[in-house]
Amino acid sequence: MNAPVNPQELALQTVEFKLDGKTIVAYDGETILKAAKRHGVDIPHLCFKDGYRPDGNCRACVVEINGERTLAPSCCRAATAGMEVKANSERALKSQKLVLEMLLSDMPDEGYKWVGDSDAERERQQHGELSEWASRLDVSVRPELKALRRHQPPADLSHPAMAVNLDACIQCNRCVRACREEQVNDVIGYAMRGAHSEIVFDLNDPMGTSTCVACGECIQACPTGALMPKTHIGSQAVDRKVDSVCPFCGVGCQITYNVKDEKIVSVDGRDGPANHSRLCVKGRFGFDYVHNPQRLTKPLIRKPGVAKDEHSIESAGKNPEDWSEVFREATWEEALDLAAGKLKALRDQHGKKTLAGFGSAKGSNEEAYLFQKLVRTGFGSNNVDHCTRLCHASSVAALLEGVGSGAVSNQVNDIEHSGLILVIGSNPTANHPVAATWMKNAAKNGTKIVLADPRVTDIGKHAWRTLQFKPDTDVAMLNAMIYTVIEEGLCDQHFIAQRASNFEALKENVKGYSPEAMAPICGVPAATLREVAREFAKSKASMILWGMGVSQHVHGTDNARCLIALVSITGQIGKPGSGLHPLRGQNNVQGASDAGLIPMMFPNYQRVDNAQAHEWFEKFWNTPLDKKPGYTVVEIMHKITAPDSDPDKIRGMYIMGENPAMSDPDLNHARHALASLDHLVVQDIFMTETAWLADVILPASAWPEKTGTVTNTDRMVQLGKRALNPPGDAKPDLWIIQELAKRIGLQWGYQGEECGVAEVYDEMRRAMHAVINGITWDRLQRESCVTYPCLSEDDPGQPIVFDESFPTADGKVKLVPADIIPANERPDTEYPFVLITGRQLEHWHTGSMTRRAGVLDAIEPMATASMCGEDMAKLGLNPGDVITVKSRRGEVGIHVRRDDGTPSGAVFMPFAYYEAAANLMTNPALDPFGKIPEFKYCAVAIHKGGKPAQHIGYDLTVNDAMLIQ
After folding, report:
1. Closest CA to 581 of 545, 551, 556
2. What is the pLDDT of residues 74-115, one digit of tens each?
3. Largest CB tally within 10 Å, which of 51, 270, 333, 809?
4. DSSP letter string over 658-692?
5. pLDDT tier, 310 (very low <50, low <70, confident <90, very high otherwise)
């Protein structure tokens, strides 16, 4: 195999050429336009965009090259040694100006890209980049050309988020490349010929009825305003631009807020290492939730005599005006005194185990660190957890056991170096859309995608092979692949001998798992299992990316153990394009877990029952600490309803930014437990389902209203900056945590701006010195993003880990055999279907944010359950019919949607809809290792008919109405 080319060596290969009489240096293969730009020479260009494939169709960038008869487009012509180029010759300038003039002549009188409010600014820049270049080259349009202006097509305003103004289109094809080559959505095309040529969506459909997924890459690419966010129709002047990080999924896209009149009017993608300017529909259009009229703006206290009725969540609980029937407004002083005073009284009366806290993966690292410190040092126990218990706890358990670290081995975009990627139990186009673009790009460049999932999702369109295995048969399928690798002599014997332990036990265990024996169990042909296993082992580099479809089972830890074994025995870890990557669901699940927001671990995954770690943190925090692991999310719900005689009965809780009344399994039980608490303090930005059961509600800050760090799925610590102030009397989360800590008796003294965020970060950095010691606050201010492990300030960070050893006791990966363990609950004659839950593209987590975003709720306003056409026909169902889905724990009425990617015998439901809460039905049975519930599998019955609950929206403003028309 040829040695990989070092990019640094490539960068050193240069050529010299002359540009307008001056000798300049270009990198080998670099275009004239890029080389000129690096040397401070601007050449007009419109169809060219950094990061995109050059197209050369607008001809605004033409230059004269000595010895050549025709002018050459500088955007797609590579510089060569000795070439003499004239960008400012009379001939080149005349052609450049003519192109700009002819394009301007077709433009509408009123533009779409104003960036200023003065007449001069409007005149110069109303057509964006076209007007800007025309101004710089002093181009004006002759009246005779304007008289020949093309017929101006009407605007297409059919999409909730974007306006199509083809009267401003210059047919530069940037939008086509954005859609087809960057995002690989294949919606935008270029149709017809000659004067009739135009940009089209699908088969010339209106944009709003096309297959567009609203990523907005096209509007970010458009140079003239032919494609625009609807919020930008009119003046484009903004008061300020603020750099931050997207607060939705774990990809960690870098963004820039455009703020006008103290509102976020639009969002642009930044060239961050995880996204390179790309965004999805949530990241681009999902930020108006911060301005939603349902925001909590004053502290609230439950009125005397108003009982906590868990059933009120589904009645008064969704109308924003009904809070006054249950709560009264209070001052911060009164609310904080009551919140902390009753928690402290319960602790002092019933013992330190009586309190628990749920932190948030939607906030910052600093908030997560301070929250878990409050619970451990103030409440006095380790009863602290967050949504990782509902996402990847089993993955982390297996990774800590096997490789000694819960973090990913390689970053997502490292798949460009892969020969094969196995995507299992994940729907990346919906859950991690920007990460999915890297997968689709890789597939276009020859990487083989294997999709392994009970559901065939959109990424399947790009897959080399699809393993649609039966739900709950992950171990059978994966063990069959491990069997094949071993039986056919495809193991990396050197890797196994030098870097793995317990191989013989694994080899012995899989002897009964041949593909031929497992095919009837998992539903995948034996030949296909063998083919995929061979390709995985033989590929130059193979990577596994997985999601909650792997982890949310009673055997989730075993599923992950099999994945670890598969990459290990094939030597597919510790090198570019290989390894293990559990895709994190929320924006800061990785960071919150790193910071210690889990019951059995101090920061940086140091076990609380490890004597050395325990002693270190007692000295570090100068406080005695509990030596026993705390209870997890689901266990806490059981401890709330424990008898009074139980010394560990939980009576009081502090919940920050989590919504267990929607996210926990068996919601009827979870809601009953929350309603049974003696005292519940909820800190949030909306009146969530959980907040309706609180005694005290503390109005907090949304992500754009705070400064702090988050850590994405790629182990990148990234800095987000505050763009807005919280509304009304709402306060920053860090301030609230510190005020509660003070009233509980803790002597904290964080100083500085933004509630001492830099000081809190520095303390967290010292607590996690083994991995982020080199990532100082000052460095983040300069660089915005640094990957860990990073042990010194001159350490660039390590995007690939485990290249030489594993952070285990012996430095080796531990191979752990796994056997088939059936789901806790199987289908039967009474409940013959399997319920699979998950997310969808437009909505996220429990929907408390995205369903209050106008564009997102307009695109997907209704809860639906997906079934295949075969099952629908058997039940006499048509798309849109109402069905009742019922398990042993609850039932919902919901509209049905046809999706032939859903297997026969299964129904898929998203869990973001309060009016059709999927978790009313899910099974709380736990994985014994990760303590994660079995969200992905429970038995249900489906009947035609029923009554779906209604979605009670908020009153639309004029702008909202414009967005969703």
Report:
1. 545
2. 999 999 999 999 999 999 999 999 999 999 999 998 888 755
3. 270
4. --HHHHSSSHHHHHHHHHH-SEEEEEESS--TTGG
5. confident
Among 357-366, 527-536, 561-570, 912-921, the range scoring the smallest mean pLDDT is 912-921
Who contacts 512 (Cβ-Cβ below 8 Å, separation ≥6)? none
Residue 351's region, left for phi above 0, alpha for psi from -120 to 50, else beta, is left
Dist CA 58 CA 61 (whole Å): 8
pTM (predicted TM-score): 0.93
The angle at the Cα of 76, spanning 74 to 78, to the nearest 5 degrees, equals 80
User: Are the beta carbons of 737 and 374 closer than 8 angstroms?
Assistant: yes
> Alpha-carbon distance 163 to 212, whole Å?
13
Quick one: CA torsion of 304, 306, 310, 313, rounded to 10 degrees? -110
CA 795, 800, 802, 803 torsion: positive or negative?
negative
CA distance 273 to 254: 8
In angstroms, what CA-CA distances link 31 with 66, 529, 653, 729? 16, 45, 61, 55
C-alpha distances out from residue 712 to 362, 366, 440, 707, 734, Å? 11, 14, 20, 16, 20
Neighbours of 904 (CB within 10 A): 12
Distance CA 471, CA 473 (A): 6
Q: How many helices (H) and strands (E) does the chain have?
A: 33, 39
Give whole-number Cα distances, 543 to 2, 68, 298, 419, in Å. Answer: 20, 48, 48, 9
pLDDT the model gives residue 279: 97
Residue recorded with tokens 């083989």? 448
812 CB-near residues (< 8 Å, 6+ apart): 499, 500, 501, 805, 806
Answer whether 589's CB lies under 8 Å from 406's CB: no
Say which DSSP state 193 is in: -
Using CA atoms, how far apart are residues 217 and 175, in angstroms rounded to an integer?
7
More confident residue, 177 or 110: 177
Give the Cα separation of 119 and 122 in Å (integer): 5
Q: How many CB atoms lie within 10 A of CB 84?
A: 14
Let me know how long the chain is.
965
Q: What amino acid is encoded at 434 in this protein?
A: V
Q: For residues 675 and 665, what is the distance between their CA atoms, to the nearest angstrom?
A: 16
Residue (of 623, 652, 656) closest to 735 by Cα position:
656
Q: What are phi and psi of 836, to 5 degrees?
A: -115, 130
